[in-house]
Specification:
mainly alpha, about 70% helix, binds fe (ii) ion
């Protein structure tokens, strides 16, 4: 049990969706900060390790189709595209209009929504470029490698993976800023429906991105690098 504290949170989250959910609920960064040990991550998030260890130990069996560590890599890429890339694009499109409207209407009384709009614009542009690179450079390369294709544009995944990892960290940084500026996505008492919908939507996007980045940085990328060796 104590050994778990010395393990990397990214590896713990990779073992089961239950573990990832326990960490997410405790406010532990297991995707961009996945290389920290559980002990370090608990200290950083000011979480008592005892309760967390108990919750992690109480894990149900990994459901069929959610064993991302053993799933064929091509299926993992399909899952990322069909689930997370689709969700991200739809959420960005919806929250774009909503964040602009809330900033315009409520910016004077609540200056934080103007800052939230500004941070959202950076997130939107960064993620749009990021998804494009994964879909058009990295993922096709991994698929080609799996199929034994030769003469591909890239000769190694390590460069693109390095860039994607760095961009994941930048995304994590913007998500932390959004959470801070919105007081943990708590709307003020006078918030209208759009204001509430914006905060709820941003919180959903955050949770989905955590899982998405986790599957890439902690599972897909290390498995791809192992394929190269
Ligand atoms: Fe992705
Ligand atoms: Fe990514």
């Amino acid at each position: 049990m104590g050994d778990l504290l010395a393990e990397k949170v990214g590896d713990i989250a990779a073992r089961s969706p239950h573990a990832a959910r326990v960490l997410e609920r405790a406010g532990i960064d297991y995707c961009c900060g996945g290389k920290r040990t559980l002990d370090e991550a608990c200290a950083l998030a000011k979480v008592a390790p005892t309760e967390l260890l108990a919750a992690l130990a109480d894990a149900p069996a990994v459901p069929e189709g959610e064993n991302f560590v053993e799933m064929p890599l091509a299926a993992l890429i399909d899952h990322l595209l069909e689930t997370h890339h689709v969700f991200t694009r739809a959420a960005l499109a919806r929250l774009d209009g909503l964040s602009a409207k809330v900033a315009r209407v409520h910016g004077e009384r609540h200056p934080e929504v103007v800052e939230i709009r500004r941070a959202f614009e950076v997130l939107r542009d960064d993620l749009t470029a990021h998804l494009f690179k994964e879909e058009n450079i990295l993922f096709p390369y991994v698929r080609g490698k799996l199929e034994g294709r030769t003469g591909m544009m890239l000769d190694s995944a390590s460069g693109p993976i390095h860039v994607m990892d760095h961009e994941h960290e930048e995304t994590g940084e913007i998500l932390r800023e959004l959470r801070r500026r919105s007081d943990g996505y708590t709307p003020p008492v006078d918030a209208c429906g759009s204001y509430q919908a914006l905060y709820a939507g941003l919180a959903e996007l955050e949770a989905d991105l955590h899982q998405h980045i986790h599957l890439e940085s902690n599972i897909l990328f290390p498995r791809t690098m192992a394929l190269e060796e």
